[in-house]
Amino acid sequence: AAKRLADKVIFITGASSGIGQATAREFASAANGQIKLVLSARRLDRLKSLSDELTSSYKNISVYYNVLDVSKIASIPVFIDSLPSEFKEIDILINNAGKAIGVDKVGSIKQDDINDMFQTNVLGMIQVVQSILPGMIERKRGDIVQLGSIAGREPYPGGAIYCATKHSLRAFTSALRKEVVNSPVRIIEIQPGAVETEFSKVRYYGDEKAAKKVYEGGEPLVAEDIAELIVFSCSRRANTVIAETLVFPTCQA
Ligand code: NDP
């Protein structure tokens, strides 16, 4: 893995917590620091601590971090265009920023929450690909890892909007994979079940107690489980596409 990842520029959205943060750590560890990481999210302080942690753990790692709110669509190409030259040629995109907000049934879902989920999980996700894919095609290399979900395959009550966003992601991602067929660009979708991160806290508007309750009676996955799968998928032989991975804990089916 270390050899295949060496010197890659890896761009992560939503790197300030959960799966994104664990993926940054996992790439750094798998490549023994021999990578260039671009970390983005809205919380700059979190990105700074992660960057400090990685640069003090690996002497050869390069890290650039900055605020990117993917729900602000117009800011995405600006962010990509203004990357320092050493980080401009992105080899691996981890299109991870995303959220579920609320557990309301259709009819009482808040319009602001619908907008935020679609802006972030769908419109932002698409614009990130739009801004990065042409460079990958031109350079004839690149991996795009899309954070889908079990919710993108099996809708459930109380999650109509989130499920609709992840179904959108899956449809977009499959079409994209077909469009780049016969090019060296790989389109990889990871579809996790329950993973204990800040995801649940965001879903319950910051209510930690309600967030914790979700995991009672079963042991969820941890962010590192997903990070390992992402790094595994990106470090296969160049001709191998791990197209879709559905992964959940033993308490789910
Ligand atoms: P977390 O809440 O821990 O992390 C979400 C990340 O997304 C944070 O870094 C957050 O950073 C970032 N984010 C949220 N909104 C925006 C925005 N508008 N612009 C940029 N970044 C944003 O959750 P997870 O790590 O669990 O979630 C990561 C992905 O995995 C999501 O796409 C989620 O849908 C998916 N997933 C999660 C599952 C789970 O059970 N945890 C299951 C299946 C899929 P900040 O707030 O600093 O911007």
Automatic annotation (TrEMBL):
GO molecular function term, any single one? oxidoreductase activity, acting on the CH-OH group of donors, NAD or NADP as acceptor
Per UniProt, which keywords does this protein have? NADP, Oxidoreductase
What the entry lists under SUPFAM superfamilies is as follows: NAD(P)-binding Rossmann-fold domains (SSF51735)
Task: Answer yes or no on keyword ATP-binding.
Answer: no
Please give one Pfam family short name. Answer: adh_short
Q: Which family does it belong to?
A: Belongs to the short-chain dehydrogenases/reductases (SDR) family.
Protein name in the entry: Putative secreted protein
Species name: Ascoidea rubescens DSM 1968
